[in-house]
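Posting here for the record, re: heme C.
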Amino acid sequence: MLFLIKLFGGLIAPVFFSSLLYAKDPAPLVPNPLLIEKGRKLYVANCLRCHNKDPNIKGSIGPEIVDAPYEVMYSKVMTGKYPDSLPKGFIPKRKSRAMQALPRLKNDIPAIWAYVQSVKKKKK
Ligand code: HEC
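Prediction output follows.
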């Protein structure tokens, strides 16, 4: 028994807790071309109705979305609304509430976010 506790404390615990740490970040650490391509298709199929083909530019109804952190995109797609408490430094592009929720895309949000970030232009 003591042996097991030692093993958990010394070996397994650090691995276990560090995996929790990384699991909190839903965005891939390294850009994944397959995920980005999947995200591009999903973006075209679901978001172009209102947003621009180029996520850096405003679309017919929706604004540019490259500046929205993951949790903002997650909230917009799941509920149509901005999160109740906004991430530090983020300013919503609009005060309207015109976006429709698309919660069926729940599991696809990391791919869409990865695509949008992959085409984000650096501000000069
Ligand atoms: C029915 C039109 C419509 C569709 C479809 C739509 N959006 Fe939006 N979106 C908007 C509008 C309008 C806003 C501005 C805020 C508002 O009125 O809700 C917005 C805002 C956003 C924002 C916040 C941008 C910012 O920086 O303030 C993100 C992120 C976003 N949309 C992502 C998406 C994604 C991803 C999809 C596709 C899965 C999508 N939207 C589909 C209309 C739409």
